[in-house]
Amino acid sequence: QLLEAKASLSLAQAQHALQLQQAKAQINNMVPKKQFEQLQNTLREEQCKTQQLQESLQQQAEQTCRQLVRTQEEHEHLLEAAVEQAEGLEHSLRNAEAVLAERAAQLTDAQAQLSRNKLLIEELRGENRRFAMALQAAELKQKSMKEKNQLLEEQASALKQLIGKITPASLS
């Protein structure tokens, strides 16, 4: 817009200079006074218009510059915020990756421990089965011993009775 306005201003100034030369040429050619005054008035009006146009263009240029500066500052702030956010996200990502790596290591350790525990459980189950079989055998042996013990007690009781019967008979 500024370039267009400057071009318009240059064009208006060139037209103005041309009109001024034409006016001088007409004066030199004995232009009537009334026409000369009209041309001078027209020239003054054009100069006023040119001055107003220059002022307007200057104001527009200043306003555009201020707006560009504000826009540039806003873009810089937005860019800084985006960079900070990206850095924060990158930091968060690195932290998350570290946590995930640590958790993966923990899970690997836990899986290894679980495998060891499964083997230990299988060993304990086998040992438990052997103990159960040994217990069962011991219980059977104990039962057999109880039965033998009871039989021996019965035999001992029978012997006591027999001895009790034999002893008075042998004494007499």
Automatic annotation (TrEMBL):
GO biological process per UniProt: microtubule anchoring at centrosome
Keyword Phosphoprotein: yes
Organism of derivation: Chaetops frenatus (Rufous rock-jumper)
Official protein name in the record: NINL protein
Localisation per UniProt entry: Cytoplasm, Cytoskeleton, Microtubule organizing center, Centrosome
Annotated gene: Ninl
Primary localization: cytoplasm
GO CC terms of this entry: centrosome
Superkingdom field: Eukaryota
Chain coiled-coil ranges: 36-162
Keywords recorded for this protein, A-Z: Coiled coil, Cytoplasm, Cytoskeleton, Phosphoprotein
